[in-house]
Write a structure and sequence with these properties.
By secondary structure, this protein is an alpha+beta fold. The chain contains 9 helices and 12 strands. The longest helix is centred in the middle third of the chain and has 29 residues. The radius of gyration is 18 Å and the shape is globular.
Length: 263
């Protein structure tokens, strides 16, 4: 397993790894998220907390992005983080079934993603001592650097870019599920290739910090998302993604994450 993982990361900038949840579980979680998005805007916007005011990536909860407002993509997303259970407790436990269902699904997917990450780091620890501690430095229950993103892009015609090319700015990423193919991964914009995955497997790809954690053996994965043949313009595309930051490493700037490296 370890040798295959290393070979695929070097050659294709990602690898496919087993996952405990199947497509049906992930689609159920996505539908719970979409139902959450149908709630009144004034309620959704109460689900927001920023862990570090200086870090734009430390948002917890609901956000809406628009190119008309200067953002790169048109999308809505929700960052589930372990702090969400505390910061939004006054909103979760109110008897709103839509909110209850969404958080129950988020907890389930988050637990499965953390378990998968833990196994991956155990495997990599064989060749890269201390990499496990970079993600789990204070024991089993430290989940402070993990964000589970539920994402819905506005619908676009076939072939249109939904998410601009970038590196994920943390340590690594698990791309868990999408409503339709569209994720592309490569070394740079010219080498992007469409990614497919089997049921009960997810895509593992290095973030911008991963070379620092692996003696430079693996480059970060440059990736974007495009609409595909069969996408219906009136329908939006959803995705579920798990981001894992490494402790004690400076997070890159927006410009660093959106500029392909030459090497």
């Amino acid at each position: 397993m370890l040798e295959r993982l290393k070979k695929e990361l070097r050659e294709g900038f990602y690898t496919e790894v087993p996952f405990s949840l199947g497509r049906a579980d992930l689609e159920k979680a996505a539908q719970a998220f979409i139902s959450f998005l149908a709630l009144p805007r004034e309620l959704k916007e109460q689900f927001f907390y920023k862990i570090d005011p200086k870090d734009r990536g430390s948002n917890v909860g609901y956000l809406h992005k628009s190119r008309e407002l200067g953002d790169l993509d048109d999308k809505e997303y929700f960052h589930y983080h372990i702090l969400a259970e505390i910061k939004f407790s006054h909103l979760i436990y109110t008897g709103n079934q839509v909110v209850d269902d969404f958080f129950a699904s988020a907890r389930k997917v988050h637990f499965a993603a953390v378990s998968t990450l833990r196994k991956l780091m155990f495997w990599l620890e064989i060749d890269y001592p201390d990499i496990y501690e970079q993600f789990f430095p204070y024991g089993y229950n430290d989940l402070s650097q993990f964000y589970l993103r539920f994402l819905r892009y506005n619908a676009k015609p076939e072939g249109m870019v939904l998410a601009e090319g970038h590196y994920d700015r943390g340590g690594c990423t698990l791309a868990l599920a999408e409503s339709a193919p569209g994720l592309r991964i490569g070394k740079d914009s010219e080498s992007l290739r469409l990614v497919q995955r089997k049921d009960r497997s997810v895509i593992f790809m290095p973030g911008i910090h991963f070379p620092n954690l692996t003696n430079g053996d693996f480059a970060p994965a440059w990736h974007d998302a495009v609409s595909q043949e069969g996408d219906i313009p009136s329908e939006a595309r959803w995705a579920i993604v798990f981001f894992a930051n490494a402790h004690r490493l400076r997070l890159p700037t927006f410009e660093e994450a959106h500029t392909p490296k030459n090497k």
